[in-house]
């Protein structure tokens, strides 16, 4: 085994380059990932399942394929450096985590709910199949908020997740295990899903990049539903380039090893920065991170203009009505097995059951108006710059957050998804970038919301920001803490 030091080959891009040079093997990368997963598990509980044997077999298959190609080209060994991966997928051999709600053949899909214990997937979800076809090595399944019905990851049949930066704090959710695993450096990237911010929220609170693609762009087959009209798979990664590469794999395109960004001048884009709703109930540390991001983009040649952000203050209520209405209808398991579902999650279903057809119709109409609100503002801009979450990660036992100038708010009312869920009503794409740290040293995420099918623009802006800000991911130190 090649000895891998901390700080060496930490991104998927670096790993891919080293694999192609045969400076490291897929098994080397997997062994380090599994060792880190086991070391971090007591403090983060990021994984609901770890698959040492299956993952090792997948890594061996990639290694065997690479050796076979090398031997076929140079049966006598050759005299020049061999590129054994030139006919293999660009990212073959790199470890990845998969959120618990995706079907992986032969493994349980529970959505971290006791109500679905023992439900073994027969087939891979299409997105998991694309991951396998790209040669990625699945380390295991990541912990999530039960049935994705929450934005904290404090509720799970597998136990809550802990934030790698401070295990006493929440990761955000519902893809909290995926973000925690990436932030801790266990894997360079992971699959998540986003119905009301579930990729972007934990990306913000754990300090990773996270993309919610345009709704409908990626297949929902083999993915446990929350609200099918808004459910959206998405990638989480440590760098903008890795995020683009994983999105390329998920969308069936070429695995991009590096996202090009302009070397000189502006890329001809304009960004709007809404106030109003996106500033009213937001922590000052978060607002400062948004302002700094605007300065970085402007310095890189992308003009940022303030604009009116009022008019969607009811978005979270509208989102919850629609989500709960679809949630209870997507899960017939609630009939007869309610006692196995956490009361907080069950309350979502009960709210959905109480909604009348007329109330649902009104919410549908309001969703269309909120979507038009976004598209109207994007007529003049290529993207909108907003906070991802209203505040950095609270403690797991914290019921209120002091927003200073805006006063104290209850986490149950102004939750981590307060700002994100309106984007899901619109169906537009959005990317969260790790734009700063709070006065307590916690990550702060800032989001760019794009036009329909504007993923490439958002990924380009994220890469531009990363380069202009000279951002380099930093991993937290392993804490000697076991979470309850």
Concise description?
The chain is an alpha/beta fold.
How many strands, what sense, and barrel or not for the largest sheet?
11 strands, mixed
So what's the CATH class? Alpha Beta
Total number of β-strand segments?
A: 13
Helix fraction, binned, reads 25-40%
**Main sheet strand line-up:** 1-3-2-4-6-5-12-13-9-7-8
Layout of SSEs?
Layout: H1 12-20, H2 26-44, E1 47-50, H3 52-73, E2 95-99, H4 126-133, E3 137-142, H5 176-183, E4 189-193, H6 200-206, E5 209-212, E6 233-237, H7 240-250, E7 271-274, H8 277-280, H9 284-299, E8 304-307, H10 315-330, H11 334-337, H12 343-354, H13 357-377, E9 383-387, E10 400-402, E11 408-410, H14 421-426, E12 430-437, E13 443-450, H15 455-468
Parallel strand pairs: 2-3, 2-4, 7-8, 7-9
Antiparallel strand pairs: 1-3, 4-6, 5-6, 5-12, 9-13, 10-11, 12-13
Helix pairs in contact: 2-3, 5-6, 7-15, 9-15, 10-12, 10-13
Q: How would you describe the overall organization of this protein?
A:
With 484 residues, the chain is an alpha/beta fold. The protein has a single domain (12-468), classed as Amidase signature (AS) domain (Amidase signature (AS) enzymes, Alpha-Beta Complex), CATH 3.90.1300. It is 37% helix and 13% strand. The protein has 15 helices and 13 strands. It has helices spanning 12-20, 26-44, 52-73, 126-133, 176-183, 200-206, 240-250, 277-280, 284-299, 315-330, 334-337, 343-354, 357-377, 421-426, 455-468, and strands at 47-50, 95-99, 137-142, 189-193, 209-212, 233-237, 271-274, 304-307, 383-387, 400-402, 408-410, 430-437, 443-450. The strands form two sheets. The protein has an eleven-stranded mixed β-sheet, sandwiched between helices. Helix 4 (126-133) links the parallel strand 2 and strand 3 (137-142). Helix 2 (26-44) packs antiparallel against helix 3 and helix 10 (315-330) packs across helix 13 (357-377). The longest helix has 22 residues, at 52-73. The protein is globular and about 65 Å long. It starts with 11 loop residues before the first helix and ends in a 16-residue tail after the last helix.
